[in-house]
Amino acid sequence: MSATAEARHSSDVTALRLDGLWVSRDRPVVRDVSLEIPANAITALLGPNGAGKSSLVLAVGGVLRPTAGRVFAGDRDITRRRPEAIRAAGVAIVPEGRRLLGDLSVEDNLRVATYALGRSDAREGIDYALELFPTLGRRWKASARTLSGGEQQMVVLAQALVSRPKVMLVDELSLGLAPLIVQRLVPTLASVAESGVGVLLIEQFAHVALGLARTAYVIEGGRIRYHGTAAELKSRPELLHSAYLRRESEAGGDG
Length: 255
Ligand SMILES: Nc1ncnc2c1ncn2[C@@H]1O[C@H](COP(=O)(O)OP(=O)(O)OP(=O)(O)O)[C@@H](O)[C@H]1O
Ligand SMILES: [Mg+2]
What we know:
Elements: H1 3-10, E1 14-24, E2 28-38, E3 42-46, H2 53-60, E4 68-73, E5 76-77, H3 83-88, E6 91-94, H4 106-113, H5 119-132, H6 134-138, H7 149-161, E7 167-171, H8 179-194, E8 198-202, H9 206-212, E9 215-220, E10 223-229, H10 230-235, H11 237-249
Parallel strand pairs: 3-8, 3-9, 6-7, 7-8
Antiparallel strand pairs: 1-2, 1-4, 4-5, 9-10
Helix pairs in contact: 4-7
Bound molecules: adenosine-5'-triphosphate and magnesium ion.
Magnesium ion binds next to helix 2.
């Protein structure tokens, strides 16, 4: 089997699929979006400010209700289900700018995230998170507010991962973090995907996301403007730039 055929084979399983999704806030902000997040890989979602990335994540997580279209986790239709049901279906979201409970320890912040799990699943989930982020084991009793920005982001990611999701949507991995810290989180995210999880990565630094991702989508004005391999997008930066420039030239407009 050629390397390409093998790569195609491992991405055959779709962890999450959006089919013609529409989401409104005071107006439609996600417009007819279809995309697939394969298991076993990182998929990048890029786009300028206000493009609808966070709204898409919140709609998948059940925080915002889509006005049309469907969301499938594997072959399970989870459209307009409640957030707990969506999480139970194996979909974890890391919303943009998620905050920890600053007074609570690392341990307690993680335990809060396992409240819906049975005792043995909770223990297993926490073991898994500590395997991925050994640093957190060393900071176990420290209160969250004493952690560095990078450590806090590890706890936020660990909170999503303790439930052993099949798919994880990460909204702005590097928000507020120094580039060096982001580079430390990157291998962990890659190993999460290698272990079989479908990861959707939203990231303001396109080179970080495209370095990790197999495929990429560009969203602008609520619509998908590009879908293809991350390698192609890297080699044709004008595809990305045009989406960002269009947004700037229409700033304040309705797209
Ligand atoms: N709470 C809100 N109420 C009403 N409109 C909102 C709200 N949050 C965002 N919007 C609008 O929804 C649209 C999409 O915003 P969204 O936050 O999904 O974009 P984004 O791609 O995540 O942007 P960013 O890169 O800045 O995080 C924007 O026009 C934004 O102004
Ligand atoms: Mg956002």
